Amino acid sequence: MATLAILGAGMMASALTPPLLDNQHTVRLVGSPLDDAIIDALLEGLPHPTLRHTLPPGVTPLHHTRLDEAMQGVDAVILGVSSAGIPWAAQRLLPHASPTLPLLMITNGLAIDPDGRLQILPQALQRLLQRDDVHPGAVVGPCIAG
Prior knowledge:
Layout (H helix, E strand, L loop, with lengths): L2 E5 L3 H5 L1 H6 L3 E5 L5 H8 L15 E4 L4 H4 L5 E4 L6 H8 L9 E3 L4 E3 L5 E3 H9 L7 E2 L8
Parallel strand pairs: 1-2, 1-4, 2-3, 4-5, 5-8
Antiparallel strand pairs: 6-7
Helix pairs in contact: 5-6
């Protein structure tokens, strides 16, 4: 099975961890700088503060400062930060981005490009990564993690 790094520890990204573990994947949940309290709670074995559920054993919660460590040997990255966090995530993922590393986004929303045009977030992430050979995919549709 795959080793997956999820960047973002909010409700949606965290709610994705049980089905990934159910399918025998290794899951590393890496918080953004805004997720420190969430990661602290998970490291203490407490329920996720906003999801209000305990994540299953097997999820490895990590602070954003440990992203480089979390990226070692991953088979794919799932981006679950808010749409406002996409520029930060792109900057942090830039050293790891490659055409052979699948990148899936569960973030919904739109972005505005430098010319003032609307972009879907995978296009915005690709632009921010400055990599034409990296093609992020996205999960779309109405969804409420809670």
